[in-house]
Amino acid sequence: MALTESNDFTIGKKAPDFALINTVDNKSYSLTTAKGKKGTVLMFICNHCPFVIHVNPELIKMANEYQAKGIHFIAISSNEIEKYPQDGPQLMKQVAEDLKYPFPYLFDETQEVAKAYAAACTPDFYVFDADLKAVYHGQLDASRPGNGKPVTGKDIRNALNHLLENKAALEHQKPSVGCGIKWK
Questions:
Q1: Considering its fold, how many domains does the chain have in total?
Q2: Cα(132)–Cα(96) distance, rounded to whole angstroms?
Q3: Residues 19-64: pLDDT tens digits?
Q4: How crowded is residue 59: how many other Cβ atoms within 10 Å of its Cβ?
């Protein structure tokens, strides 16, 4: 498992729109129709990455908690599926149903969405305000598989609470770390 850090994404930058198929209900979702009233968390994840598997319970917990506050969560998998068939749409649907994802799990077959966001790893997290301007791009928290630190979602929770309280974006944003996106 090769460690990859997330790339820079300028705070204040407008989120690129997209339209992708949700593997669970087979419907097309765009960012503008799936965004939250108060904010949106966009996550690049996949099925097989140990870093994603490690944080999945917290992602579900956070989504359930913050969606009630007007923050929507959207997950996207952009991995190439010929060499990594475990990340294909049918298995994405299975994982989403088994774990009861409370958010759409979209498939970026062309990888154009990942490129538009300069996504580099799984998981890679972006938080946008109500106007879809970036307020956070970084790690969920300091926990990693095997490092003994509990998964709390501390960093993203802090960013979301700042957003909900109309406070300025966090000054210190540590990059996310995970498996590199599997490019074609």
A1: 1
A2: 25
A3: 999 999 999 999 999 999 999 999 999 999 999 999 999 999 999 9
A4: 25
